[in-house]
Amino acid sequence: MLALRLACAFLLLAGAAAAHAQAFKLVSPDIKDGRIAEEQVFNGFGCSGKNLSPALRWSGAPKEAKSFALLVHDPDAPTGAAGWWHWVVINLPADTKQLRKDAGKPDGSNLPKGAEQIRTDFGTPGWGGPCPPPGDKPHRYNFTLYALKVDKLELPKDATASLAGFMVNANSIGKATLTGRYGRKKQ
Asked: Which of 5, 104, 139, 145 can pair with 53 through a Cys bridge, CB separation 3.0 to 4.6 Å?
């Protein structure tokens, strides 16, 4: 009988933990019906968007979070399975609940105090919007917000997105993902 009670208690706790984990949510008013808007699209490489990062909001983060990191990745980019890093932001303060549209300016001036941007696959820090090859199926852009167990990630100024991703994953206590899609017609 004791074993049955312990098993039930374990299941209740596991269910509560799973419900808490599911509560961490990332949303954007600029990504409607799963589609990334033209104003978020890169301006270059044959694309002519405004290259504005979308507004993002989150809720339900683990209470133990001491900071956040945001990684935006296109796993469909034709790079030999490496994908493409579009935006990497670390050291977002724990009390941050949103990023406004165009928070991804390269100089970081629209980010919360203390937040830092890591160089993307465009070669610079800041938001680099979608610009998949013409005629490819629409690419997925995974916006993943990580709740971290540390106040700050100490990374070198020239850190790569992959190094940042490794450190983020090593310190993650929860994550929320939003996926937007974008494709270009064949020219």
From this structure: 104
Contacts of 149 (CB under 8 A, 6+ apart): 64, 65, 66, 171, 172, 173
| Residues across the chain | 187
What confidence score (pLDDT) does residue 82 get? 92
Q: Which CATH code for domain 25-182?
A: 3.90.280.10
> Structure tokens of 134?
């013409």
Q: Quick check: 158 and 119 in contact, CB under 8 A?
A: yes
* Residues 145-186: tens digit of each pLDDT: 999 999 999 999 899 999 999 999 999 999 999 999 999 988
* Predicted TM-score of the model (pTM): 0.87
Cα distance between residue 153 and residue 120, in whole Å: 17
Calpha distance 52→41 (Å, rounded): 7
Give the C-alpha separation, 57 to 100, whole Å: 8
- Yes or no: say if 128 and 105 are a contact pair by the CB < 8 Å rule: no
